[in-house]
Amino acid sequence: MSVSTLVTAERDTEAGTLHQRILNDIEGKIVSGEWPIGHRIPFEVDLAREYGCSRMTVNKVLTQLARAGLIERVKKSGSFVSQPHTQSAVLEISDIRKEVESLKLPYAFNVPRAGKRKAQGADRLLLDVPVGTAILDITCVHLAGGKPFCLEQRLINLASVEGADQADFTKVPPGQWLLSQVPWSSAEHRIHAAAADATTAEQLGIEQGTACLVIERRTWSAGAAVTQVRLTYPGDRHALVATFTPSS
Amino acid sequence: MSVSTLVTAERDTEAGTLHQRILNDIEGKIVSGEWPIGHRIPFEVDLAREYGCSRMTVNKVLTQLARAGLIERVKKSGSFVSQPHTQSAVLEISDIRKEVESLKLPYAFNVPRAGKRKAQGADRLLLDVPVGTAILDITCVHLAGGKPFCLEQRLINLASVEGADQADFTKVPPGQWLLSQVPWSSAEHRIHAAAADATTAEQLGIEQGTACLVIERRTWSAGAAVTQVRLTYPGDRHALVATFTPSS
DNA sequence: TCCTAAAAGATGTATAGACATAATGGGGTC
DNA sequence: GACCCCATTATGTCTATACATCTTTTAGGA
């Protein structure tokens, strides 16, 4: 059922390095509420004395905690336990083949539609490319155990992805191919619920109007739009799971 | 529409500190693909020479990049550009009042149901407390511009939250109160789509069967369950948005 | 009294050096 | 040739020190 799980923290309950021990210790005091929000934590030199180490070591720990958002540091004044920034969760979206295989179901996919065309005005909202840019428009149905699992509707910016027009997406699903090709990216996710329309319902083998979980992702690499994908899951059967622990 | 947006990176295109400059430089080479996945990046001593700084400075940058998942470090072998771990996104869920107010709509809420009771077997799946524990069971409807915006169904573990049984949740919504009370927490999110049942539909003023976005969150503090909440949004009207840029 | 300037106190950044740790590769031995 | 041991090498961690930077506080002068 779960798409994925991820825990950020490096949880060494039992101290490994001194760095780890100090980090866990301080984090523990914050998490437990022993040091409430707004509390000024001891100065670097005092912590250094307390743990019997140099200020540099403490400084690195505090820098890490500050980056993680647990504390805020003010020159001259000291370091303070910060208001939890709101909830932050790390959400990991693995590629769909892995997702299916982790459920111990045989994976397959088919491509009912794929074609090259010029970007139109409406595509601008999706892919962030100028009108007229050559794009690849692919629809892909992922199957788990022979039954439809997820509908993937994807646009790829041919200008920014080398060799995408030669790739054979009937052999490798586009998502997996892109993951292996495009080095790294920034991404924007949009997650919402929608009732399945007639086409979607047919392709997923569900009834029209069924509540579906829709994940739209836009990806950039070095400032240029790479791809836009819309993943539709039958909503009652699938969920995104994200586990989050402050720190790192 | 958007619940929230968060960008992790500290994007100083134009170098501030040496640390920042090296970090941006190396990250750039990875993001641009100049250093492809699996590429062994120069040794610390070589980078130190290249940037005219000490090994410690380079070491700190690489440590940070490793923590962010951009590179993997292997003793003796060197540091390598890592396979993007899959997509990771930082998802921030702010409290609902802020969410509504950021839409420039007047916020209000009402509490159709609230009561103290003992945890039953069925609650174990939700809140992770032993049967018989005293819990608070609250239903809360959040309104934006006078119209239902979100349905909140919440369980609070009275044993782990000081003063929750005295709090007046007709004045402050429970989510906001908890955020200000409980210092920090680990959380597990489950996001899925569901059709509105009769009760939900009535409370949200929508038709039965409407696709809704459901976010379930369980929160712990220092190992003890704090609260479980189920937020139901009419799906066509709301979406979660998460922006992600690699690096920390 | 009030404004300004200097001192003090905290973090920020960087260095050089030391030792620990782990993987690799190259012997040497059987 | 197979195996084990050890030197090599790159990263991991920590220290002691130095100077920069930014606030707050204090002291001084008009």
Structure notes:
In chain A, helix 1 (about 20-30) packs across helix 3 (about 55-70) and helix 2 packs across helix 3. Chain A is an alpha+beta fold. Helices cover about 25% and strands about 35% of the residues of chain A. Chain A is built from seven helices and eleven strands. In chain A, the strands form two sheets. In chain A, strands 5-6-7-10-9-8 form a six-stranded antiparallel β-sheet. In chain A, strands 1-3-2 form a three-stranded antiparallel β-sheet. Chain A has two domains: about 20-80, Orthogonal Bundle (Arc Repressor Mutant, subunit A); about 95-235, Chorismate lyase-like (Chorismate lyase), CATH 3.40.1410. At the A-B interface, helix 1, strand 4, strand 8, strand 9 and strand 11 of A face strand 4, strand 8, strand 9 and strand 11 of B. Strand 11 of chain A pairs antiparallel with strand 8 (about 185-195) of chain B, so a sheet runs across the interface. The structure holds a DNA duplex (30 and 30 nucleotides).
